[in-house]
Design goal:
Number of helices: 3
Largest sheet: none
Number of domains: 1
Radius of gyration: 35 Å
Strand content: under 5%
Structural class: mainly alpha
Shape: rod-shaped
Number of strands: 0
Amino acid sequence: MGFDPITIGTALVVGGAGMSAISQLSAGSAAKGWGEYNAAVSREEARQIMEATEYEAGKMAREGERIKGAQRTAFAKGGVSIEGTPGAVIEDTAREINLDIAAIRHKGRTAASKMESQAYIDEIKGKQAETASYWGAGSTLLSGAGSAMTAKWGPRGFYRYTK
């Protein structure tokens, strides 16, 4: 019933292993939470990119209509019929505007897709960190138990107390 350094040392090893395991689990949980947060931020950014893309595409379409209207007005003021070359000019303008709109949408979809991919990666990283924390905590507990047993009974087990 006195001071037993082996028992105290064993208790400290077990306590330290327990605290380390809890710390690993906490870190894994936090990493998963941050992964989910980052994924949500990336998805929101993707949504905003698509919203801005549609705004820009609409703006380009309105500008295109304004340009075609100005062309029609210029031809009409000059007394030129829309048939033939003037009509081809307006059609060419419409094709160019449609290509610009398609390019704006493609650029927006590409950027939004990158953000969606980043969201998926963030979620995976969070889940992997959480899983790794379970394995790390388990490993810490097993190592702590082994160290505690070695501290209590020595490398040769109970044998050292019987001799």
